[in-house]
From TrEMBL:
Pfam families: Put_Phosphatase. It comes from Ardeotis kori. The gene is Phospho2. SUPFAM superfamilies: HAD-like. This is PHOP2 phosphatase. The active site is at 8 (nucleophile), 10 (proton donor).
Length: 241
């Protein structure tokens, strides 16, 4: 009996948006209006590409970015929760599906020694160019009208589950932990034995509530969390059963 834990990253594992946190490296810790206003809905990764060019143009180097990113706070209780999952890896497979990028997530998890907790991280590939600029690419292409151009989390989850099945691994239950609008698509894919854990007061919880009001509720169970201790309480019950 194995459980799959699927985590979003921003405002879920960390208590901020890693992409906007990096702006602390910018001159005067802010972006010029023209750059800020260049964002187009569904094209966040392209926008972040321009932000990284701006940081590079202003002489912001990799070590400064790394120092800034590793100061990002974890959500309340998250350090305890990840420690608990790490101690119970025989019960849990654990993945991240995030619209952040590989460099930021890698830095943050390694600095806190949590990278071993996660079996796989699915996020936008990033790397430093030969000139020292951080570059980021879309995670994949997809045909989902509900998701941003660079990432459909349902597609990621479905492909991961298919690959695991080929290896002979199936899960008793999937627990999906997230906060944002782009977490709704994978939540709607979950089955009735699965559990969606939206963060209290954030967009995902509001969207799930709205679906229930519109009489088209999600199929899975829904458990709202405000700190990661709520998630840990549920996981402790799971492995006791």
């Amino acid at each position: 009996m194995k459980f799959l834990l699927v985590f979003d990253f921003d405002h879920t594992i960390v208590d901020e948006n890693s992409d906007t946190w990096i702006v602390k490296c910018a001159p005067e810790k802010k972006l010029p209006n023209g750059l800020r206003n260049s964002y187009r809905p569904g094209r966040w990764t392209e926008y972040m590409g321009r932000v990284f060019v701006y940081l590079g143009d202003n002489g912001v180097k990799e070590d400064e970015m790394k120092r800034t990113m590793t100061m990002i706070p974890f959500t309340a209780g998250m350090v305890d929760l990840l420690g608990f999952i790490g101690e119970n890896k025989e019960s849990f497979d654990c993945i991240i599906v995030s619209d952040s990028n590989t460099v930021f997530i890698d830095w943050i998890l390694k600095a806190a020694d949590f990278h071993k907790v996660f079996d796989e991280v699915f996020t936008n590939p990033a790397a430093f160019s030969s000139t020292g600029y951080l570059t980021v690419q879309n995670f994949h292409a997809h045909h989902c009208a509900k998701c941003p151009k660079n990432l459909c989390k349902k597609k990621v989850l479905k492909e991961f589950l298919d690959k695991q099945l080929e290896r002979g691994v199936s899960y008793t239950q999937i627990v999906y932990i997230g906060d944002g609008e782009n977490d709704l698509c994978p939540v709607m894919f979950l089955r009735k034995d699965d559990v969606a854990m939206p963060r209290q007061g954030y967009t995902l919880e509001k969207k799930i509530s709205q679906l229930a009001k519109d009489l088209s509720p999600v199929v899975c169970s829904v458990l709202v969390w405000s700190s990661a201790f709520d998630i840990m309480s549920y996981l402790k019950l799971l492995i006791k059963e």
